[in-house]
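Task card 7
Instruction: Convert sequence to structure tokens.
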Amino acid sequence: MSSARAIKSAFESMLFTWGEPLDVKLAAEVMNINWKEAYAYFKELQEEYVQENRGIQIREINKSFQFVTNAENSDYIQRLCTPVKHKRLSQSALEVLAIIAYKQPVTKGEIESIRGIKCDRVIEGLEKKELIKEAGRSNAIGRPILYGTTDEFLKAFGFRTLKDLPEIDDIENAITATETEVDEVAAAQISLFGNENVPDNQG
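Output:
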């Protein structure tokens, strides 16, 4: 059996080559080891990068791992790369995304019931950005589509799993706040997701 050092070296090469988040079970199959053992090696490797404050770090997303740049170097990266102007997610998109994140799996009808307005266009926009996806069909009349968030959602807002979402006692009341509360709710939603810069092309 390969040594721990050799396995972690192989994982580094896999992460570099794969680009996308590398599933632990897939990496374990390649190395012919138990996935729990592989997960432990990934965590060790991740910690080594943190301790050495490397320019590249390893991020975990739903039992998958991916190379990312060190957040401390973001200013230098921005100077190096040609800036691309993106629109932020609209208030409507944030509301729908918050409902889906906390109520999933949820139907369009349930989302509209909470918001009080149609949201076809917003859902379509979030699907195009791959922040949400179809998560099956409800058993209700007509078997409407159920929606849930994606790994892209976790990546965009810096969450490792859905368990990392901040606790909200009543998402319905937060979304249906009175007009005098709108600014406070908007600020809370931005704080909730921790990222205003997700590109938005539609609503």
